[in-house]
Amino acid sequence: MSIIDFEARAASCATAAPQPTPLVSLRDVHLAFGETEVLKGIDVEVKQGQAVSIIGPSGSGKSTILRCITGLLRPQRGAIEVGGVRVDGLRTESELIGLRRRVGFVFQQYNLFPHLSVLQNLVISPVKVGGEPRARAEARARELLAKVRMEHKESAYPGELSGGQQQRVAIARALALRPELILFDEVTSALDPEMVGEVLTVIRDLVQDGLTCMLVTHEMRFAEEVSDTVYFTEAGRIVESGSPARLFGAPASERTRAFLQRASGASAPRKGAPDPIETYLTFDPLRLAV
Ligand SMILES: Nc1ncnc2c1ncn2[C@@H]1O[C@H](COP(=O)(O)OP(=O)(O)OP(=O)(O)O)[C@@H](O)[C@H]1O
Ligand SMILES: [Mg+2]
Hints:
Keywords: Amino-acid transport, ATP-binding, Cell membrane, Hydrolase, Membrane, Nucleotide-binding, Transport. Pfam families: ABC_tran (PF00005). Belongs to the ABC transporter superfamily. By secondary structure, this protein is α/β, with parallel strands linked by helices. The protein has a domain at about 20-110 and about 180-290: Rossmann fold (3-Layer(aba) Sandwich). It is about 40% helix and about 20% strand. It is globular, with a radius of gyration of 19 Å. The relative contact order is 0.16. Magnesium ion binds near residues 62, 63, 185, 186 and 216.
């Protein structure tokens, strides 16, 4: 199809104005650990190219929502779709690997492979999981390192990098499998303040490039700046959602207002020791591929 055909088709689609199907949709998602209900009817939609932030108090279920989207956790009720695939219906390891090639996930703990150089950290999954020729994977890895401004460190080992540098490499590694969607779970919470900005700059660039992103963050100003939609969670429910201007400027709920007031008074909570559950659940395509 020529560019002109493509433009004509795009124009005719525009006049028909169909609502784009969301890339991600959660409908009435309920999840409990034993007797403890953690998600109590979550509805979220993310359209292609959007950046959506989830904010809310500690323990309100933000990370659990992201883990459900990657298939790491399975809800007891409700439906989760990513790109037309029912995630809650996936059963086999190979189906889950298929999903995780499409959904990148970056955590607070960067979990780079310590015995591999920066470049090899980016190359290993596309080669071993994606079956890409090594030379092509290396060329792409170099492009991605340039994107996260880490091209000068391709031969370094993770232990030789600062936290912010490691997190930027972790973002590049998540991009190496060419995901359609990337999930960021508090990726700056473990960083020293001076490194937060460099990681946020990388995420801002990705959002501007049109990559579909979901961000769980305590960086309220950043969420306000980059998001198309913000969701506020409390005790396993979405209290409200809306444009950042509306949610931050004129929150409908008293609970959102109180949370935002507390968040603006205190700087972002920083965490110390890694959460063992998070470490255990960390997405590692190689582990899954075994
Ligand atoms: N594997 C698990 N087993 C039992 N309870 C869990 C498990 N994972 C999470 N929880 C509980 O579920 C609730 C929601 O946890 P979640 O990690 O989603 O919160 P969060 O909003 O991401 O919090 P934070 O801002 O501190 O990261 C918490 O009460 C947590 O203790
Ligand atoms: Mg969390």
